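Form 7-S
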Amino acid sequence: MSDDPAAIELRKQFIFKIIPILNPDGVIHGNYRASLMGVDLNRRWKNPSKFLHPTIYYAKSLIKFFHALGRQPDSDTGGVVLSCDMHGHSRNMNVFMYACKNFGEEQAVRVPNQVIWAVPENVHKYCPIFSTNECKMALEKDKDTTARIVLFKELGIQNSYTLEATFYGSGHFKKPRTNWIREIEEPEQIDRRYCISDQRSDIHITPQDLLEVGHDFLRGINFAQGRRLLSYSWFDEPKKAEAIRQKEQAVL
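Output:
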């Protein structure tokens, strides 16, 4: 268990449920997308079969169970507040995220969409090979049966994402960023963790880089949930406190 301050804070605030791999039968035979039966499992979340897609069936059942459990009257949360499916990407470079999006009257969807964007926006503050330019907020018709969109539509999990990591590399390895927020981390330390330099010739992402991405992903979430926007969305206590404050002001 990490003793990083962000990790300690996150473990105080959240319960993590981690499924290491959803396609063990396919991967062991060299498939990165298809199962042993030749099925793209990330297109089976809408109506998974217990027998044909068991990992998806039981993963979805688990998420639904904990979401319902967290929404009980004696709970202080809204159930599952964030889900993230982690993939490799065969075309784009860098690390990036796909998110969902609310549509409707602009005033009604503005804040919910800000809540969704808050996570990739803050992961970008920590991770030098994370690219917000390649992030996308959408509800694509051809991805309607993916984990990200199904959990968003069926369970109402606003912060439902896919984290994509390139199979190739990142141009950021050769172009150190200079616009870091020093209160978060010194630029030199960030460059050291990812071996970033002007002289670097190899831009491929290594397993060690991916470990750093995992650290920075969670540090970004921790930074984001410390802001009022996300804490108000994820937890009931800030809502109760805000209601009390508004009531007191009305009395005054």
